[in-house]
Write the structure tokens for this entry.
Amino acid sequence: MSENLRNFTRSVYVFDAVVRRMPDESWESSSPCEGWTARDVLKHQCGVLDALAHIARTGEMLPPQSIESADNPLDRWGESRDGVLAALDSPGALQHEGKYWFGPMTVDGLIAFVQWDPMTHAWDLGQAAGIEAHVPADLAELSYNVISGMHETAIKWGLISEPVEVPADADPVSRYLGLVGRDPS
């Protein structure tokens, strides 16, 4: 298992841990993602993972798109989670090369970029439901480094919001959340 796959898998399970603790009535709650409910965040994350699974299985580019419905969020999330992890675990999947979402790279390189997304949206779901997401500091630091290297582009593409100021001595999770436009206070 590559270090990138290990980090991506951990990030997926940060999201998974929040999904599993979501009260049924919280799926229609507003999330920190403007105009999105908690269910919309889940639909987005399923779409991202489903597209990654396709890329890992075929090596062919597929843009992520939110799934159509998530009437049973826990079951639908389980399909996406298990599908992407199985696809990434297939022999040779990480070595596929192509022009993917962030330019020419291997699938292993792509998941190094994408690992920030499930972790960030785990925090968003947690905020919508009043649940702590338990974002690991080391993953937040890795994500901070990824996003800070493409910050202006990520804002322009609508992947993140304008940064939120955090104290200079903020912990890695708060620094990361502030960078992607979340208010960790």
Q: What stands out?
A: The chain has two domains: 3-134, 136-185. Strands lie at 97-100, 103-106. The radius of gyration is 16 Å.
